[in-house]
């Protein structure tokens, strides 16, 4: 089984991000994956979101297309009456209309491989204690003049800590529901499951914002389940080679923000943003 993974296409951030989609589709067509996984952050606009999913219909119809929502996908307008919970459910519906499967809705078994997933969230467990920054400061999502924009656009009904734990529980439930039917499990999330994948710079405010990368509890679920072989995730826009954490191979393959990318470089860059592996 050939699996291709990417994330963080962010088509509502720059015109270049919008343009890269066709190059990602072309790159995926060349690879001919059996499974394509997009680990979130396509666009906060549902119109753009659907258009981008539909662009991947060009792929061979045998290819299973999987998605997990990212924090930008569940962003809602401040004045909107829609909550992020509701948008998460809408994303599941839009995915199925666009021939994608939203792993945040339910797991899927392909051949004898289980795919589970969740957006995941953060509970500040990736913060560095040495800065002695109180939890309330993380809850405010402000550091100096810098802000983590979920505070403005992610509208959940509970605290970050409760939310992270809710998504961890949902993931555990998914794993438990399929583990007797599969030979291995691949988990896709948007937020990071392992602190080992977080890039710390030893300075603020950068390290402050690392508290919003993910939660340790996610990764503990993987490490406690011997069937979990791969952790696919997005959210960090840093590219790094696959990493081994315990028995799990951690892979992220983000596009990121393309403020400085020339059009000429896009086809090649799109190929770099699709990591392919075989199982
Ligand atoms: Fe992102
Ligand atoms: Fe993100």
Q: What is the straight-line distance between the termini? A: 5 Å
Average per-residue pLDDT, rounded, comes to 97
Number of domains: 1
Identify the strand order in the major beta sheet: 5-6-9-10-12-11
Please identify, by name, the CATH architecture.
4-Layer Sandwich
What share of the residues lie within helices?
25-40%
Helix-strand topology string: EHEHEHEEEHEEHHEHHEEEHE
Rounded Rg: 18 Å
Number of helices: 9
- What molecules are bound to this protein? fe (ii) ion
Find the CATH topology: Purple Acid Phosphatase, chain A, domain 2
Name of the CATH class: Alpha Beta
Number of E-type strands = 13
Strand percentage: 15-25%
Structural class given helices, strands, pairing? alpha/beta
General description of the model:
Helix 1 (15-31) crosses helix 9 (266-272). The termini are close together. By secondary structure, the chain is of the alpha/beta class. Helices cover 32% and strands 19% of the residues. The structure holds fe (ii) ion (2 copies). One fe (ii) ion binds next to loops. One fe (ii) ion (FE2) is lined by residues 8, 10, 41, 70, 72, 235, 237.
């Amino acid at each position: 089984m050939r699996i291709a993974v990417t994330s963080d296409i962010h088509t509502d951030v720059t015109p270049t991000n919008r343009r890269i989609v066709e190059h990602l589709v072309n790159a995926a067509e060349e690879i001919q994956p059996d499974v394509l996984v997009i680990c979130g952050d396509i666009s906060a606009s549902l119109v753009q979101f659907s258009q981008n999913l539909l662009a991947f219909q060009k792929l061979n119809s045998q290819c299973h297309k999987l998605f997990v929502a990212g924090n930008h996908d569940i962003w809602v307008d401040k004045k909107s009456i829609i909550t992020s919970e509701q948008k998460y459910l809408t994303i599941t519906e839009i995915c199925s209309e666009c021939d994608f499967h939203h792993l945040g809705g339910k797991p899927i078994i392909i051949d004898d491989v289980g795919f589970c997933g969740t957006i995941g969230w953060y509970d500040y467990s990736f913060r560095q204690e040495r800065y002695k920054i109180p939890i309330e400061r993380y809850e405010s999502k402000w550091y100096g003049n810098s802000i983590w924009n979920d505070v403005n656009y992610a509208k959940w009904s509970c605290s970050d800590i409760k939310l992270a734990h809710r998504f961890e529980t949902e993931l555990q439930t998914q794993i438990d529901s399929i583990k007797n039917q599969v030979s291995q499990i691949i988990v896709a999330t948007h937020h990071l499951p392992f602190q080992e994948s977080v890039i710390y710079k030893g300075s603020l405010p950068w390290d402050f914002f690392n508290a919003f990368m993910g939660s340790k509890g996610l990764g503990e679920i993987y490490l406690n389940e011997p069937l979990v072989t791969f952790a696919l995730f997005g959210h960090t826009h840093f590219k790094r080679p696959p990493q081994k954490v315990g028995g799990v191979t951690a892979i992220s393959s983000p596009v990121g923000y393309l403020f400085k990318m020339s059009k000429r470089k896009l086809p090649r860059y799109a190929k770099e943003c699709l990591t392919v592996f075989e199982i």
